[in-house]
Fold these 4 entries.
Entry 1:
Amino acid sequence: MTVDRPPRCRPLPAHLVEAVAAPDAVVSHPEVLDRLDAALASLPPAERAAVVAAHGYAEGPVGAAIELDLETEDADALARNGLQLLRAALADLEP
C-alpha cells in the first residue's frame, strides 16, 4: 500500500451538491409502508424470513437462525442480503 494514495472518501464539490435536485414530492407514510410491504413480498422466502425475524422482530441473527433452522452466520448472511434487496427496491425513497 502506498502512502501517497489519496483517501477513497472525499467531500463533493459544492457545485455538485447544489446541482442535485431536491425531491419534488414527499412520499406519505402510508405509501412508504405499502412500498415496504410490496418489497418484502418480492424477496425470496428465506431472505424475507431472515429480515423479518432479525430486524422486524428485533431478534437479530440468532432469531433468524432459529426461525430458519440455520447456523447463525448463514442466517445473518440471508438477512444482510435481504436488506440489500430492500434498499435497492426502496432506493428512490432515500433522501
Entry 2:
Amino acid sequence: MAEKPSSAQMILKWAQTMVDLEEKINQVEGKVQEMERVRNSAKEDIDSFPEPSFTPEPQNTRSMLNQYIRTYSRTHCLHFAFVWHKLYEAILYRKGISVHRRADHKKVSYVQILQDLGMMEYAYNLAREIFPL
C-alpha cells in the first residue's frame, strides 16, 4: 500500500501548483496586454484614414419601391412576383388602372407603366401602406 503524503508534502505540492497557476496567469495576462496593444494600434490606423470624399447618389423612387418589395418578400417568405402582383391589384382596385393590360398592350414592363403615368410615388406609398414591415 502506498503511504499517505505527510502534511508538509501536501502543502509543498499545493504551493507548487499555486506557483504553476500563477505562471499561467502571468502568461495569459501578457497575451491579453499584447492583444490590447495590437487592437489600439489597429484602431489608431483606422482612425487615421481620411473621410470618404464622395457621397452616394440618392435613390430614385423606382429603386426604392423595388428594394421595399424585395425586403417585404424576403422578410415574409413570399415570392417577389407575388408581392408585385398584389400591389398591381391594389392599384387596380383603388385607382381603376390595370397596369397589366396597359403593359401588355404597349409591350413594356409593368413598372414602366407606373413611371409613364407618374405613379411611382403613389405606388411606393401604397406598398408601404399595404405591406408594412
Entry 3:
Amino acid sequence: MPNTQVFLHHHAVDHLLAIGNPSGIAAFIDQLKHNPETVGDYRLPDPRGRMIEVKILGRQALLFFKDPFANIIKILEIRNVEAA
C-alpha cells in the first residue's frame, strides 16, 4: 500500500515553523503518512460534513481531515491550546 500524502495548509506551516520544538508534531505527521487510520483525540464535523480530527500534542492542537478516496490527509491548522 502506498504512503498517504499529507498536505499542510500554509497557516499550519507558519505555526509549525514558529514552535520552539516541533519534533512531536513532526513525528505525528510522519505517523499519519505511514498509518492513515490514525485518529485524533476528538472529532467534529465541519460545515461541509467532513469529520475534522483534533489531536492534542502537548500544548498544541493539530486539526486535520482524511480523504481516503484521494489517499490524502490535510492538516488544516495547528493551534496553541492555551490560546484556544
Entry 4:
Amino acid sequence: MLKFVIILVLIVCLLELSFYPRNKIMKNKNKHSPAPKDMRNLEMKKGPAMEFEARIKAIDRYVQEWMAENGEVEARPFDVADYLVEKGVYKDYDDQDKKGRSLRADLIKIKEKGRVNELRGLQVVERANSIGWVFKRIKP
C-alpha cells in the first residue's frame, strides 16, 4: 500500500511540473543577459578611453613600465589589463567582459594593419586555432 501511495504522489508531482509554465520555474534567471556566443561580439560596455592611435603608444609605454615596476621579463594581455585600466588606456571592464579582451581586440587590429613593429617587444605566437600575445621587456 505504501509503495502505491509513493508512486501516486510522484506521478501527480510530475504531471504538475509538466503543466507549470517554464518561465516561472526559471524566474531567477535573467532573461535579458546575452548568450555566451553573443558575448564575443560585444564591445566593452563603457568603450575605450582613448582613440586607437593614442592607445597604441600608451600600450607600448605602459606595458614596458609595468614590467619594469614588477620585475617581469614577459607579460600577457591578462597580466597588464588592470594596469592599463588604472592608467586610463581603457575604461573599466564589465564582470561579463573577459579580462584583457579589449587589449586583445586592439592587438588583433594592430596585426591586421601590419603595425606589430610599433609595439616594442610584442611577440605574436601563431597557433592552429588562435593567436597568442606575449610582451617581452626591452631594456632601455
